[in-house]
TrEMBL record:
Protein's UniProt name: GNAT family N-acetyltransferase
Native organism: Nostoc punctiforme FACHB-252
Domain N-acetyltransferase residue range list: 7-159
PROSITE patterns to which the protein is assigned, alphabetical: GNAT (PS51186)
UniProt superkingdom: Bacteria
Pfam families per record: Acetyltransf_1
Amino acid sequence: MIDFSLLNCRAVCGQDENFLFELYASTRAEELDAWGWNQSQREAFLQMQFKAQRWSYQINFPQAEHQIVEYCHRPVGSILVNRRPTEILLVAIALLPKYRNQGIGTRLIQTLLDEAAQNHQIVRLQVIWHNRAFHLYERLGFYKTSHTTSHIQMEWQLSKASSFTISHQSISSRN
């Protein structure tokens, strides 16, 4: 059981690079297991994809806030959010496997939804077709707006959100 009072977010720093790679690799493990690659093939592919993803985020979202999610002062995930005057874009969110399905993702996203409601903003995201988080987003009141062959675009607006509510405290941010 997660004690949410021990959950914290802080800005990503240079010392987080190894953790961020480990986190990225954990999000691709199931997919790569099906390919039957040896460890060196997996490592080379993951390094290439990780660097490409980081580069893409820096180019496309230079003002985004990238934070490490900590539980008991240990990194357990990350969240990348790009804020604009009328919208909040949830660019990426990931948790280590051990910390998934325990309410942490819900808590992080609900905090963004509360911010958006307070500021009359829309929250947008995209999710890959096979990502199980799609169902979480639907439960939180996101709806599909469009799709590509690989991703589903979703958004949340207070005026269209379901009556989903959660009793929570905002996550503190350390500077």
